Amino acid sequence: MSLTNAEFDVSEIHWLMDMFQTVDVGLVVLNSDYRIQVWNGFMESHSGLTPRQVRERYLFDLFPEIDEQWLRRKCDPVILLKNRAFTIWEQRPYIFKFKNYRPITGSAEYMYQNSTIFPLTDTRGQVTHLCIIIYDVTDAAVSRTELESMNGRLQQLSKTDFLTQLSTRGHWEDALIQEFNRLQRYSQHHSTLLMCDIDHFKRVNDTYGHTAGDEVIRKVADVIKANIRTTDLAGRYGGEEFAILLVDTSLEQAQCLAERIRQQVAILAISYNKMVLNVTISLGLAERDVGMQEHRHWIEAADNALYQSKVDGRNKVTCYSSEPA
User: Fold this and answer.
1) For domain 160-319, is the CATH number 3.20.20.80?
2) H helix intervals, the chain
């Protein structure tokens, strides 16, 4: 037996209402005064409020956490211009502050939401209501934020030496190049480069093992970190070799710092496997000179001064001089 047109219309409305209530997005219809007219099953499930409880209620009284000015700025042009509007979680995490109960994205406390806002017109084409569709995008948002966080951590790891927590050689040398270029433009400024390494370090590794050597490197790095300023940059230049860029520091000022670091390392008592290890360091200093054409010339100057400290018996501070000895 076939359905009459009237019966078919009723069935179609019934199907639409079923879809409206069970669809996995939020559907909210507001009148022009922002009073709730329609509230589907998704919204009821996440808010705990039934359609009967919210009908004719003023949206911003019922949900005071919604930024009224912001949402009106989104909705008012929809009414006036009959255009759609969109919100995305990157700009604002949510419109409705619903708890996140999804097990896969349990790390998010609240549901991340995108939304589409579009006008509803009467038979004369006048906008009488607004429909807001709420999409739960928590899975995508959490994946995105975790990926960005991981990329940030990886970027930080690429800049930081794991053993010493000083800068890696690459990151440190990039900073040196920037400082060298700055000094090329502002020749009245003075910055000094300090290079140092641990004396007889191979003997430590050969006698006590590489784990002991790592502990020695860590402790020397701790002394360096404790003595430099936030404007300075220390890096692990090689195995047991360190480099410190002392910004806006004259050779004389740098010499005082280098001597303090040398003395503190010399009195270090490094505990390892119930033994106490003692080491010294040799240091070389070079102030940036106008005759240096490239940053590597600056490194070579400091390295030459370090080499001279080794030649002169180690556990010394030597300042580079462009004048022949």
Assistant:
1) no
2) 5-22, 41-47, 51-54, 59-62, 68-81, 138-159, 169-185, 201-208, 210-227, 251-266, 295-311
Please give the structure tokens belonging to residue 194.
Answer: 């300090």
Give the span between the Cα atoms of 73 and 80, in whole angstroms: 11
User: DSSP letter string over 255-321?
Assistant: HHHHHHHHHHHHT--EEETTEEE---EEEEEEE--TT--SHHHHHHHHHHHHHHHHHTTSS-EEE--
pLDDT at 76: 87
Q: What is the mean pLDDT of the chain?
A: 87
Rounded mean pLDDT of 186-211?
A: 92
Superfamily of chain region 5-145: PAS domain (3.30.450.20)
The catalytic residues are 240
CA atoms of 107 and 15, how far apart (whole Å): 37
Q: How far apart are the first and last CA of the chain?
A: 114
Tell me the pTM: 0.56
Backbone angles phi, psi at 156, to 5 degrees: -65, -40
Burial of residue 44, with CB atoms counted within 10 A of its CB: 0-12 exposed, 13-18 middle, 19 or more buried: middle
Of 26-35, 185-194, 203-212, 223-232, the poorest mean pLDDT is in 185-194
Residues 67-117 have pLDDT tens digits of: 999 999 999 888 888 889 999 988 889 999 998 876 554 568 889 999 999
Q: Is 212 helix (H, G, I), strand (E, B) or coil?
A: helix
The residue type at 80: L
SS3 assignment, position 243: strand
Domain spans, the chain: 5-145, 160-319
Nearest to 190 by CA among 298, 309, 294, 282: 298
Residues 168-201, buried b or exposed e (16+ Cβ, 10 A)? beebbbebbeebbeebeeeeeebbbbbbbbbbeb
- The amino acid at residue 284 is G
